[in-house]
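Reopening this one. Same input as before:
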Amino acid sequence: MAETSKTSGGMTNAEIIANTLDGLLDHEVSLVAYGRASIALGFNQVPEAVGRSLDMDVILRFSHAAELEADDQFWEAQAQVNAVLEKQGLYMTHLFQEDQVFLRPDWEQHIVPVLRPPMRWLKLFRPATIDLILTKMMRGDDPQDMADVDFLIRHDRITPAQMEPAFDTVRMPDIQELRDAFDRALPVVRRLLAHGINTTSHGQSGV
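Same output, byte for byte:
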């Protein structure tokens, strides 16, 4: 994913995108962010590169599908975000149904509130760290995604005992390419888990 530097005010790109969307809404909207934006917003002491990611990806929950689909003002605001931020190279275009993403079957029961930046209308959540790790396996052993997995494991002290049930029950699209990607990522993630068992956690967590 392409990257750019932080703003002079020190805000991450994810904060800029979230603030912009919040300012364009006129009512409460609940979204689940994932990808690097969710790491930038939902964790402390993130690697600098994470804050430079150009977009904010969103998981569309089945439980909110009908409400969100009928919310014309949200979709207008989402389109406006991309227009407003176009010159900065920032965007919010990747919104995926939950069955298009690697997640545990009960993932929604474990979502974590994202408390920054403070916003009026936009209520952001992120998947639990275990689910975020699963989402990072969708591109196989991609070096950037594996670096993010390493950060997540160390930040929240995720153990093999926590992840193995998730590996066994992960819900993924019935697409062979994605299954192959999972199989490529699995040994790498297991090595990272084994290496990170004894690391010290810091900052906000939610597994």
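So the earlier flakiness isn't reproducible anymore. For the record, DSSP finds eight helices and five strands in the chain.
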